[in-house]
Amino acid sequence: MCNLAIQLFLKMSQNTHEKGKISWQSPSNIALIKYWGKHGTQLPCNPSLSMTLSASITNTSISYLKKQHADKSVVLQFYFDGKRSEVFEKRIAVYFHHIIDEFPFLSDYQFKIESSNTFPHSSGIASSASAFSALALCIMSLNEIVTGTLNKNAFYQQASQLARLGSGSAARSIFGGYTVWGQVEGMDAYSDIYARPLLSEIHPVFQSYHDAVLIVSEKNKKIGSSTGHALMEKNPFAEARYRQAMDHTLEMLQVLKTGDTEKFVKIVEQEAMTLHGLMMSSDPGYVLMKQGTIEIMDRIRDFRRKQQIPVAFTLDAGPNVHLLYPATYREMVLNFINKELLHFCNARQWIDDSIGKGPKLMNE
Fold this sequence. Notes:
Helix content is 38%, strand content 24%.
């Protein structure tokens, strides 16, 4: 961590208080234990546990220029893939206003924010997680420049807290490997305020896991995650779900330590099915899975039973399927994907991803 702190300082020292540019790349993550339901200011109703991805990344840079005349306004432009986006511009302006008391310098500068993804929009990858984690890290780096301090111990913890305010799942993308967000029974180290990397040892089998993202549909969801979270307030199964998530988190912490792939499969798939069951049992209820989603899940289960390989599926709040598997079985799984699953994918699209090491500060 000390070397990283020195690296941060050297790279940021190229910028000045008056103007400069900060760039971070941050990955998305796939939740193994799902976060569904929130309260207060982006606080989770249950703990979640995720695997940080490697190839599914958002690249974000903030160019900043000090205003000639001080005022309390937020001045920014946002560009996605080189094109200005007023929709996201407004969302980020609201976000800046929300955190301006903690970071008052945000009203002292005008900003140009440029962002791009290595994965297509609506691909089943949580773009808000990678986007807001990258943005939060840029803000934290700019804060170090403006204040002249470099607190290596608090940097990532505060970045996770900041990312959470933009998107709950973004709190987990600040760290590589496996990450926990939310209070866990009997463990004071984990918090609702920010995520933390898994503190216990990880069994070798889970240190090189792969995630094949099978794109059943690229269409935007009819109901967004924010609406889904809000519907949990009146869901008749909410309390039972929160209890299940806590139990699954405690079990998964042991699974990742002992290398129990059979139990990993069971928990991960139960989590996926529960998530979509909660959507269907909401008022109003809704279905995000497609026919191709169900076909792929059935074939994964059949493949696992016949080949005795611990492949597992999971879903985020959408129709696309994440196929999780140990690196040992990569060749067999790739053949399975090509022969049996791509038929159900939109234009035979899928993303080949794996466990990642976390965000990276880019040199400008």
